Structure to design on (1063 residues):
């Protein structure tokens, strides 16, 4: 039926890129669309025009609002034609145009007529179109037909209604939930896909009712599901039920037999779904794993790349937690190293690297070397990371692994790949002392010919720290000084700093370093010259050789423990005046970026994709707010502001949360109040605080809120005095007191007379964590060692029975309110022990580092060893006290 | 929705990576340029592989992409990173085979463009809003072709012979072009 849309050339074969849409133009096609208005419709011609319109949209062309409306109205005329082919194109076109609500009304009656038509194809498609474009109000009108359609004997119609139901559930759950009887009937359908769609919808209707889901799963697992897709769904629901069921004891895990049975299903997608589900069970035992691994192993030698990929990807994940269970597949896995599909080969290699033993390392490395040159960078990064962890596992093999890394470092590659290699070498140098010197030399050779400024400066910085500690520091100088000759200004400046560090640490090198630094004084870049001058002066380069003082070392090596963003803001706000810039006035609180939320499914694309503006920097905002209130102006510098704590339940008349602002000798509570009753205006709002359970606190000031109209939040403050510099804690009970005035909703005017009223709020606590700032350190081990053991306090605690190790770790982190370092807040699944590193700043600007070692003691009991280092032993004791009392 | 297998997009490109027909079911690529960038990335990453006998598979940017090539056409189906690869492959196979049936075995860019209306209908019958509607190529092709059977008037108004004659004629016409 489809005729070519433009006249064919007779010898079109000669024309290489012949296309019926060659030279197509939106304006012309829109003109052509006028044929839709002809009194005598030509179905074929109309179909062709619709195809052209769809082609344009498909190629990314957009219609203006006016154009879209015009086309839409023209297309609605085509419902007059009885040509089925044309009608199908009309349906697709309407969906593509996604008409607005007032336009939908025009086609509603035509579509509703089709929905009740005798032709199955009309019914199915009209349902899908109408449900796609409709809103809630129309839905109640067509609900009756949809319910009928769900149990329609034609599977296409039933599927159309069910799938539409799945989409509508997002927007109109209350309506779709009324269909559950019909949906339940459809689950028993003999048509495979109807069963699949019905099961998906039924589960979604009931997903918040655990008992119902449980019942659904246990009745269906007895075996009435025919469709492979539905069976896959059932496997997913089953593993969800297993996950949520409290009984995690493997011995009598419910439904395991069902999953295992699915491994013998005839459809590959079901076998795989079941195998994957088993490998992802919590605390899976080897006995449970074995049958799943066996079927995955069979997939490894399948002729289909998709099966090999699916199997090797799953086994790769299993290897992270149960390397021993995967070793049986090693032979099949090794043959995959030469797989045509590079994704499969890479996954196979990394799996082998995880499961391999020390003796197989060399053989593997040989195979990998051949293979590295013909895979993409992102796969190379995966391999590099796998080699890094392998090297940490077998430190004795560091020589061959380090060699491998340095070889690939010399080859071609993009920035991310090179960075992954450099990072790996740096980590190996840090963790394997024997690898240090060779590793540093590899890095030196790399910067001789490195095109990435960022990597060069990072390596130079690292050399400055590690180089002077080696047996022969002088051999690195040549590489570093070469940079001063050959590189851009950024790298030159970094090289100058590195030279200065060698000079500071190695006294014998000092005179020679001075010579080099003096040469840099003639550099043509300001920063390079400035640095050279600065270092020459701090190191005493103009006089005799002197012992490098402690404060000079601190200046050169000390880390800037202030977040750079905050420093930048403070510098921007600083106005040149008599008073010099004070670096201690920079706030130290790390601003946590809210994780970008995943878009809710079913949401219409916004088109612009502009993310909502993030909240303004809270620390700065609070500081500004508080310093603008004269009563609090003399409290000094704000140490920390807590996250808001809710003092009311959600959806109450008045919503109140509180932010605790900690100063050295004061605490200010900022109550954020919202009035949610449109008919009320609140005036003179205060919070009456009872501090009888907080002995060390005395109320000194409060600032009422003059007026709180509906839905526009306001703040009231109460300030307390507390002993200076100590972490005083206590409980406060709060009462909201205000004068309430009736508001006339039509005019929005308030009555003159008001009534005094009170509203009980929840209690508020000032806890020890309020006195600790979350401040991270970049290298915990270095920070820990440089802090020294002078003020170290170590003790052991039993934390009693806990849900899991992760839960215990999080509880302690929350209790201390400190910043987890190096990702140690994440506890790997199934681990029996864990070390967590925390850092922070205690009130009075005292740095604190904490090392927590957790272990499982018996089935559920968690024991913890707490080591605290700080600059002040009373602070170390205070941390222990927090834990002991928490 | 999260447990149901979801298709993110179905893409049909030519041998230069140019768009022939595409359908996106997810908000992950809100603009046309985002879509084009994705298509370009997919095309370049798979260009050098041979996916002419068996469907191939790759993974990047947290998406799993299964693909198959024939003549100057590249077929792709994309799913989220945790999607069951075999389900994605069955959708790809359904689409691929259905196009083959609709075009009577001559599957190349020119044939596809000349029958683009059928290809659009085919896409419409395979996935609805990300949810798999049908994976059986015979059923898909049947649904797409079925509409050429009716000549406007309802069957009841024609005699059986007439109806059959019309049907046969229309069918042959549609299959021969």
């Amino acid at each position: 039926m489809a005729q070519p849309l433009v006249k064919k050339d007779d010898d079109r074969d000669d024309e290489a890129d012949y296309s019926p849409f060659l030279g197509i133009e939106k304006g012309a096609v829109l003109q052509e669309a006028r044929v839709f208005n002809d009194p005598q419709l030509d179905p074929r011609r109309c179909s062709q025009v619709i195809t052209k319109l769809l082609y344009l949209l498909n190629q990314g062309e957009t219609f203006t609002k006016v154009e879209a409306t015009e086309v839409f109205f023209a297309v609605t005329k085509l419902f007059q034609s009885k040509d089925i082919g044309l009608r199908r194109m009309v349906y697709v076109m309407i969906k593509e145009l996604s008409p607005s609500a007032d336009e939908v009304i025009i086609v509603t009656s035509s579509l509703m007529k089709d929905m009740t038509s005798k032709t199955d194809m009309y019914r199915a498609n009209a349902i899908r179109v109408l449900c796609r474009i409709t809103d809630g109000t129309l839905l109640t009108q067509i609900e009756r037909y949809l319910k009928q359609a769900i149990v329609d004997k034609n599977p296409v119609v039933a599927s159309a209604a069910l799938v539409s139901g799945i989409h509508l559930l997002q927007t109109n759950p209350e309506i779709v939930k009324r269909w559950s009887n019909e949906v339940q009937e459809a689950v028993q359908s003999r048509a495979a896909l109807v069963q699949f769609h019905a099961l998906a919808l039924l589960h979604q209707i009931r997903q918040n009712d655990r008992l119902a889901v449980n019942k659904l799963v246990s009745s269906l697992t007895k075996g009435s599901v025919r469709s492979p897709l539905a069976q896959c769904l059932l496997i997913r629901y089953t593993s969800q039920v297993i996950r949520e069921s409290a009984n995690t004891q493997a011995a009598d895990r419910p439904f395991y037999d069902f999953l295992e049975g699915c491994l013998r299903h005839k459809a590959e997608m079901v076998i795989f779904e079941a195998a994957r589900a088993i490998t992802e069970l919590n605390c899976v035992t080897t006995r449970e794993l074995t049958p799943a691994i066996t079927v995955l192993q069979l997939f490894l030698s399948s002729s289909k790349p998709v099966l090999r990929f699916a199997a090797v990807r799953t086994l790769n994940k299993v290897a992270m937690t149960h390397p021993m269970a995967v070793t049986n597949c090693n032979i099949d896995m090794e043959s995959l190293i030469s797989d045509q599909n590079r994704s499969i080969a890479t996954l196979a290699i990394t799996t082998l690297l995880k499961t391999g033993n020390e003796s197989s390392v060399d053989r593997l490395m040989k195979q990998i070397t051949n293979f590295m040159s013909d895979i993409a960078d992102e796969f190379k990064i995966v391999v590099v990371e796998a080699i890094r962890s392998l090297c940490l596992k077998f430190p004795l093999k560091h020589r061959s692994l380090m060699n491998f890394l340095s070889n690939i470092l010399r080859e071609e590659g993009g920035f991310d790949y090179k960075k992954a290699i450099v990072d790996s070498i740096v980590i190996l140098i840090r963790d394997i002392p024997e690898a240090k010197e060779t590793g540093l030399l590899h890095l030196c050779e790399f910067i001789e010919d490195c095109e990435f400024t960022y990597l060069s400066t990072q390596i130079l910085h690292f050399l400055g720290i590690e180089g002077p500690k080696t047996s022969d520091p002088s051999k690195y100088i040549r590489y570093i000084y070469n940079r001063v000759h050959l590189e851009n200004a950024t790298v030159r400046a970094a090289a100058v700093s590195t030279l200065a560090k060698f000079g500071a640490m190695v006294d014998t090198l000092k005179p020679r370093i001075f010579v080099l630094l003096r040469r840099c004084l003639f550099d043509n870049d300001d920063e390079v010259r400035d640095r050279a001058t600065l270092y020459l002066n701090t190191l005493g380069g103009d006089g005799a050789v002197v012992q490098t003082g402690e404060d000079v070392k601190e200046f050169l090596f000390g880390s800037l423990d202030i977040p750079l963003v905050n420093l930048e803001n403070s510098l921007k706000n600083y106005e040149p005046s008599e008073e010099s810039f004070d670096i201690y006035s920079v706030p130290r609180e790390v601003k946590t970026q809210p994780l970008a939320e995943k878009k809710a499914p079913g949401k219409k694309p916004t088109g612009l994709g502009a993310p909502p503006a993030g909240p303004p920097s809270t620390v700065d905002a609070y500081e500004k707010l508080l310093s603008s209130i004269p009563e609090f102006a003399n409290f000094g510098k704000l140490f920390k502001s807590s996250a808001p704590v809710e003092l009311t339940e959600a959806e109450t008349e008045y919503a109140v949360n509180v932010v605790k602002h900690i100063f050295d000798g004061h605490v200010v509570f900022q109550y954020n109040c919202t009035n949610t009753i449109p008919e009320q205006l609140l005036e003179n709002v205060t919070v009456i605080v009872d501090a009888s359970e907080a002995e060390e606190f005395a109320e000194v000031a409060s600032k009422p809120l003059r007026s709180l109209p509906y839905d526009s939040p306001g703040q009231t403050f109460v300030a307390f005095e507390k002993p200076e510099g100590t972490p005083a804690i206590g409980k406060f009970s709060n009462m909201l007191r205000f004068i309430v005035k009736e508001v006339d909703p039509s005019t929005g005017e308030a009555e003159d007379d008001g009534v005094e009223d009170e509203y009980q709020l929840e209690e508020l606590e000032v806890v020890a964590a309020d006195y600790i700032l979350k401040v991270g350190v970049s290298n915990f081990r270095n920070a820990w060692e440089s802090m020294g053991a002078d003020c170290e306090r170590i003790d052991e605690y039993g934390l009693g029975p806990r849900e899991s190790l992760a839960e215990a770790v999080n509880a302690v982190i929350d209790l201390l309110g400190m910043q987890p370092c190096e990702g140690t807040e994440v506890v790997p699944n199934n681990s029996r022990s864990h070390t967590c590193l925390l850092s922070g700043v205690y009130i009075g600007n005292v740095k604190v580092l904490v090392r927590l070692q957790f272990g499982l003691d018996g089935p559920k009991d968690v024991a913890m060893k707490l080591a605290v280092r700080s600059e002040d032993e009373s602070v170390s004791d205070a941390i222990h006290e927090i834990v002991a009392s928490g | 929705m999260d447990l149901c297998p979801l298709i993110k997009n179905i893409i049909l490109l030519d041998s230069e990576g140019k768009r022939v027909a595409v359908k996106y079911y997810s908000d992950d690529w809100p603009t046309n340029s985002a879509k084009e960038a994705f298509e370009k990335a997919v095309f370049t990453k798979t260009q050098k592989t041979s996916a002419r006998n068996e469907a191939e598979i790759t993974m990047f940017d947290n998406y799993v992409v299964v693909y198959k090539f024939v003549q100057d056409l590249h077929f792709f189906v994309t799913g989220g990173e945790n999607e069951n690869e075999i389900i994605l492959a069955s959708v790809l196979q359904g689409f691929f085979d259905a196009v083959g049936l609709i075009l009577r075995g001559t599957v190349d860019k020119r044939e596809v463009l000349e029958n683009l209306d059928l290809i659009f209908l085919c896409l419409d019958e395979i996935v609805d809003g990300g949810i798999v509607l049908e994976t059986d190529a015979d059923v898909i092709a049947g649904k797409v072709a079925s509409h050429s059977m009716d000549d406007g008037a309802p069957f009841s108004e024609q005699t059986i012979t007439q109806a059959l004659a019309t049907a046969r004629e229309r069918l042959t016409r549609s299959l021969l072009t």
Q: What stands out?
A: Confidence is low (pLDDT under 50) at residues 6-15, 591-617 of chain A. Chain A touches chain B through 84 residues (CB under 8 Å).
